[in-house]
Write a structure and sequence with these properties.
The complex is a heterodimer of chains A (293) and B (256).
Chain A (H helix, E strand, L loop, with lengths): L1 H42 L2 E3 L3 E3 L5 H6 L2 H33 L3 H16 L2 H12 L4 H9 L12 H26 L2 H9 L4 H25 L1 H4 L2 H7 L6 H11 L3 H29 L6
Antiparallel strand pairs in A: 1-2
Helix pairs in contact in A: 1-13, 3-7, 3-9, 5-7, 5-11, 7-9, 7-11, 8-9, 9-13, 12-13
Chain B lengths: L3 H24 L16 H8 L1 H34 L5 H13 L2 H15 L5 H25 L4 H8 L4 H30 L2 H6 L7 H9 L5 H29 L1
Helix pairs in contact in B: 1-11, 2-11, 3-6, 3-8, 4-6, 6-8, 7-8, 8-11
The chains are: A mainly alpha (293), B mainly alpha (256).
Chain lengths: 293, 256
């Protein structure tokens, strides 16, 4: 009787379950897996003005990535992204620490203030920076009115402007994972380290840094990759000489119409992501923690 | 360490985060033409904005797209979360992995892969292509939000419902749905905001027939400064802030 009933319910349960799984898998296969395979395939094909891609199969696109002209752009992009990440870490690390030491009530408000920008239009915020940094913008006008400088500084359309823009947009993504590890960091460990005779610096290096390493890695991952893809930041703040990998990909796909080359550049970015994810997983496993998904 | 130093540091960073936004808001009410010098209070840029019919059309397109993308991704995302929470099935790890990859991978890679798909399959670039793309990048965020809610949920409740003779469908509707409702609303709001703010993916998969707001703004701010954008940015800010407050309120209320 019991057995019969259970079977009956399973029969009723199946259509719902099957339906859900087919829907989800269908969506992900059609709109994530297949498109990504297309990009991989395109990166090995030849450019075609009519159909975008055509045979023969070639490694030419990857070879073009090594072309000094593009290599320079990629390295410059990597450089700007790395500086952005480093600046975010230097600002974010003490910030997250200080935030985790604030009283609980205020902490909620402060975290709310931190995620407000995440919910607001990043394009509009980038534009707001332009208002500040323009030659006759507020910073220059203000400094000149105060007599600090005699003539306006050139801030827009420089490498610095792009990095400022990227840091401004990506800082919360560094702070939030750092905050979560600092929040879990137990004060007793620091006291223990102190009692065992370690100085402040030694405690920091041997206790605090290793314990917050997962947060550092997560933050680096969340900042470094987007920092290479956010093409609208250089477009608005950086001028034509401070391009990101994202700009190259966009130009190849939308303007130059060289899909195979654009695809190869995108694969380069994906490989970088895979490498970072792998490092992240590895460190998580070593530290015995599971991810969210 | 002294007490005021961390506090001062926190304040400094918050100032840096909010000054550009504050400047944008203040200058949206500026009467001056240049956009840099204060020329008195005025609502002229808001007026110009509302009289700009192309801009208004783009705004409606964007809102409609965000509503439909949020709704569809909440529907699919919550079902996915339920399946991940309740069922054992083959490829569960792969499914989680794929959602994780969607969330982590650079937006621009998603963008070009979808563009390639749409052109290959012959989907015209416009509302449909934008919708498919936006649902795809919103999906993992909805799944996470709903899963977080489900993980704190007593599994005996659905079991009890089932023992009392409820089918899976009825149990989902009468027991699970009320429990995950706050997460559904929060997920919907997040999806709505992500869709409304997206620039990177939309740049690739939108067509001339369906212009949306972020792209319209993008083409305006690439060259020079447009005071109209200050007004529009301010409105978007207020709007996003309301959405965020609403979702926080829903989540906080449901915790009690």
């Amino acid at each position: 009787m019991m057995k019969h009933r259970r079977r009956m319910f399973r029969g009723l349960r199946q259509p719902f379950r099957t339906g859900v799984l087919v829907l989800v898998w269908g969506w992900l296969l059609a709109l994530v897996l297949v498109p990504n395979l297309l990009v991989i395939a395109a990166s090995f094909l030849t450019r075609d003005p009519g159909t975008f891609i055509s045979l023969p199969v070639t490694l030419e696109n990857y070879r073009s990535l090594m072309d000094p002209l593009y290599l320079e752009v990629f390295l410059h992009s990597l450089y700007m992204a790395s500086v952005t990440t480093l600046v975010c870490l230097l600002i974010g690390y003490p910030f997250a620490w200080a935030l985790s030491r604030v009283g609980k009530e205020r902490q909620l408000l402060l975290i709310f203030l931190l995620i407000v920008p995440f919910w607001t239009n990043s394009l509009v915020r980038t534009y707001a920076l332009k208002l500040l940094m323009a030659t006759n913008g507020l910073i220059n006008n203000g400094l000149m009115a105060l007599g600090v400088i005699d003539e306006p500084m050139r801030m827009l359309y420089t490498e610095g402007a792009v990095i400022v823009g990227l840091v401004y947009l990506l800082l919360p993504f560094m702070i939030l994972p750092l905050y979560s590890v600092f929040d879990d960091l137990r004060q007793e460990l620091l006291l223990a380290s102190h009692d065992l005779g370690a100085g402040r610096f030694s405690t920091f290096i041997h206790v605090v840094v290793p314990l917050t390493l997962p947060g550092i890695l997560a933050g680096v991952m969340l900042v470094l990759l987007p920092a290479m893809g956010l093409f609208f930041v250089p477009d608005i703040l950086g001028g034509s000489r401070n391009l990101l990998v994202g700009n190259v990909i966009k130009n190849q796909f939308l303007d130059a119409r060289d899909w195979p080359f654009g695809a190869a550049a995108a694969i380069l970015l994906t490989l970088a992501m895979a490498l970072l994810l792998f490092t992240h997983r590895l460190s998580q496993r070593r530290l015995g923690e599971g991810g969210d998904l | 360490m002294t007490r005021w130093l961390p506090q001062a540091y926190l304040s400094l960073v918050y100032l840096a985060l909010y000054i550009p936004i504050a400047v944008l808001v203040v200058f949206s009410f500026n009467d001056g033409r240049t956009g840099y010098r204060w020329g008195g209070f005025s609502l002229r840029w808001y007026e110009a904005l509302f009289n700009n019919s192309a801009m208004m059309q783009a705004l409606w397109n964007s809102l409609w797209l965000a509503v439909s993308a949020a709704t569809l991704s909440t529907l699919i995302g919550s079902l996915t979360a339920l399946a991940l929470h309740r069922y054992r099935f083959r490829g569960k790890r792969a499914l989680r992995g794929m959602l994780f990859v969607v969330m982590m991978s650079p937006e621009i890679v998603l963008a070009i892969s979808l563009l390639a798909l749409f052109l290959l399959v012959g989907i015209e670039l416009g509302y449909v292509s934008l919708l498919l793309a936006h649902v795809t990048f919103c999906l993992p965020f909805v799944v996470i939000t709903v899963m977080a809610r489900l993980s704190g949920f007593d599994d005996r409740l659905p079991e009890a419902a089932r023992d009392l003779g409820a089918t899976d469908f009825i149990m989902t509707r009468t027991v699970l749905l009320p429990v995950i409702m706050p997460a559904l609303l929060a997920g919907w709001l997040l999806g709505f905001t992500l869709s409304l703010d997206d620039v990177v993916v939309s740049t690739f998969v939108s067509g001339p027939g369906y212009e949306i707001l972020p792209l319209r703004i993008y083409s305006m701010v690439r060259v020079g400064l447009k005071p109209e954008v200050n007004a529009l940015g301010t409105l978007l800010l207020v709007f996003s802030l309301l959405m965020l407050l609403m979702s926080q309120w829903i989540l906080a209320r449901s915790k009690r």
